[in-house]
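Objective 1.3, modelling of assemblies. Example input:
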Amino acid sequence: MKRFVYLFNEGNSSMKELLGGKGANLAEMTSIGLPVPYGFTISTEACNDYYEAGKTISAEFQEQVLASLKKLEEQTGKRLGDPSNPLLVSVRSGAVFSMPGMMDTILNLGMNDETAEGVAKLTENPRFAYDSYRRFIQMFSDVVLDVDTFFFEQLLEEFRESKGYQSDPELTAEDWKEVIAGYKGIVRKHTKKDFPQEPKDQLFLSINSVFDSWNNQRAIVYRRLNKIPDHLGTAVNIQSMVFGNMGNDSGTGVAFTRNPSTGENILYGEYLINAQGEDVVAGIRTPQPIHTLQAEMPEVYQQFVDTCERLEQHYQDMQDIEFTVERGKLFILQTRTGKRTAQAAIRIAVEMVEEGIIDKNTAILRVDPDQLNQLLHRRIDDSHQRNQLAKGLPASPGAATGQVVFDADEAEALGNDGKKVILVRAETTPDDIHGIVAAQAVVTSRGGMTSHAAVVARGMGKPCICGCEPLKIDLKNKQFTVGGTVVHHGDIITIDGGTGEIMLGEIPMIDPQLSDEFQLLLEWADSARKLGVRANADNPVDAKKAFEFGADGIGLCRTEHMFMDTSRLPIVQKMILAESYEERKEALEELLPMQQGDFEGIFEAMQGLPATIRLLDPPLHEFLPDKEELLVEVTKLQLTESNAAELMEKEKLLKKVRQLEEFNPMLGLRGCRLGLMFPEIYEMQAKAIFYAIAKTTETGLDVKAEIMIPLVGHVNELKKMRQLVMDAAVQIQEETGKEFDYTIGTMIEIPRAALTADQIAEEADFFSFGTNDLTQTTFGYSRDDAEGKFLQAYIENKVLPDNPFAVLDQDGVGKLVSTGVSLGRKTKPQLKTGICGEHGGEKSSIEFCYQAGLDYVSCSPYRVPLARLAAAQASIRN
Ligand code: PEP
Ligand code: MG
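Predicted structure (tokens):
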């Protein structure tokens, strides 16, 4: 017989898969003697069985729940539905991975007409009893019976108005009874049934509903975003209620054991006096900071501080803790590993090593490389004036500029169109998640640092400002006002999530710098990693950035980018349009010193670290104007009949563009094929490199140049190009009278190259896997077309697990990489191998590269720190 239910004192934190994160932690806390209200957990297996059985629960399951309920009744000395001493419980979902705000919670279950009266008598607080009952009706109706909260809110508001009340605390017990009668009417109207009075019915209906919520829209979206498998299912936690709304000696709150935004080691959180459960997280009332609790309830505060310390030591990580104080007694409702910004993750990891709580390897594994992007983002340039419009809570750091939108759907639509938008709302709910994803940043006028918007934005590394109360949103007129200033929908604002400031217009931003803790963590990572990390850098500025971010060298310098410069493009075009060899040579002579200058700059920036320079790769038409545009211009000129010279020039250009036109340019005349057809181009580039080496070494600097031939598919292509480069070297060495070292290698980016890597290695000193082209050619997808036309649908329909241009396809493309490495090393055991496609900056691909035995990965300079960390994690994990 399968066991579906576990009392809190029967589990522990290792049972996360079965009990969910929340359930396992409640069990763990119970086992270490913390004040956790009694309860039990229904396992994720029960949820999966529910789905397997076509969304029905078995008699056996029901029996087990009832048996555990009985034990819970014994533990608490109360009974579900007993008016003389009623047990009230909460019902919460609890998945294996935390899914904040994704699942629905029901509080005060067990309330009905009779038990409400019982609670009133027992507590001598009828007002509290009926308020709790009406909250239960509202929550249960919303979550289980599918009756929108709006109807209840509307009734309550009308009631308040009819009585001339300003706020809920003014309602008396009799008032609440009247409201309850109204609420029941709403339920009857919308469900054609009476509100369920039998507590056991309430319980089973709620359990079903939690199971169902595993597959609600927002849970599905959250899982997709966070790559959480769909088959895990959710657990359900049934816990006896404690009340934070029993008067001014009660309250409820949320706290982190360290600041989740900066990582500072201080208790960080907020609470509300005389409030229940979800009031704090919901962001409806703005709560008070945790330290003021010290003055209000000194003993409780001290007990709470001690508990936090204990929990952190126990779990050896920063905790996010929910607590309730019922009539002066502290209860811990939940603890979990706290979500944090990248900045906080790093500081906490480093400080915990210094405090002796964890070791260095654990610290390295604690920081998610993906999160580091946040730190490598730009921030507002302090030399520019900030005309602060309003200030809210600094909920998630980083700065952003964008146009104001008030609606998540619109944010998504504009964001997908490549527009930068900032989502401004009173508060966000899980239904806004798609808009948050698409926005640059989020601003809310209500809610605290632990509100939905804050938690979600921090998780995504988006700048966020919460609780900006001076900001009054007027949805009808699509605008917000701050004092006398009106900001319309579509206006540009800039926000600083680190300070909470909102400014009008755009403000210049600057590049990030790495904090001391970050540097230290990366130093630890460098000692732990075996995989090299290089950067893709095409010019001296990027090369400097790469050096600054700790790259071990340049893994790819795409020389064509040097041709795109507006001052050089005309010369490049002259070279392409040349009618004769001499004419082309002339243009190339003009380009040579320019390229040489670039290379000198790059070698200087790298200060002796290796630099892989790739000879020209793209098809030549990329340097010429667009055909359609040219056609329009030529037609216009023909019509005006003036300016014959210009017309002739354009016609010549158009003719060349037509000549160069290809059906599949990515498979056409590009890469080493260009070098073979126009050897003078590669010759010029090789000479520029060698002149630059000769010049740079004069200053005493070491230069390690690695010359790379792109798009090789057959060894003979490489053989010819290798000879050409070596001839150029000999020529420059003779001319300058200088000896210098260099190596010649190739990109492996065509399947045939990987499959014949043993032959290719005969002519190559190194391999660099160009996984962009290798993915393109292995799948037979044209990257430019696939991403826009069908890849998204493929991923949504689970045809592919990920975009293979972002996350290396290990089964297919990866197999070619592994084959290439082992064949290449069969010929040359010491052959140096690396990867320079986009995948070089993606953590799972980096781990693959480590396992495949590559020497290095190469990625954009801004991703270098991330790759250093990911490479260290790969070493530690393997
Ligand atoms: C590659 O193909 O992976 C590569 C790095 O080259 P490019 O993206 O320039 O084609
Ligand atoms: Mg390529």
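The mean pLDDT is 92.
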